[in-house]
Amino acid sequence: MLLVCYLAHGLPLEKRGYTGEGTFYFTGLGSCGEVNEDSDFIAALNAPQMANGANPNHNPICGRKARVTGPKGSVVVKIVDTCPPCQHGDLDLSPGAFEKIADFDDGRVKIDWHWV
User: Is the pTM above the cut of 0.70?
Assistant: First the structure.
């Protein structure tokens, strides 16, 4: 039997979304064990939500996708890394992803995101 939990506003918990700050970082080898480039649409999830275990390469969140919306638009990113200083709800995006949602001069922007 499959049970789906709904919030008061009628969305399944998986689609409820998060609010936080979006930043960008220069990519390379991430905590999920992948090497990526700055042009890839990827992100590092904040440490509290990433909740890495003994081996972060085996984290079930690695590879999940999220739709991120910022001041300029939205982009779908793949989670490939952890952002230790980020707070719950924050995402650290690759430059390629960040430029879709904000200007680099902004540096840190308000974002909304949800799992897709």
Answer: yes
Q: Burial, 76: exposed, middle or buried (Cβ in 10 Å; 0-12, 13-18, 19+)?
A: middle
pLDDT, position 9:
45
Q: Which domain holds residue 31?
A: 13-115
d(CA 21, CA 75): 15
7: in domain: no
Distance CA 68, CA 114 (A): 7
Mean pLDDT by 10 residues, the chain (116 residues): 39 73 98 98 98 95 98 98 98 98 97 98
In a domain, 1, yes or no: no
* Domain at 52, CATH number: 2.40.40.10
CB under 8 Å to 80, separation ≥6 — which residues?
A: 30, 31, 32, 34, 36, 42, 43, 44, 62, 63
Residue with tokens 């939990």: 5
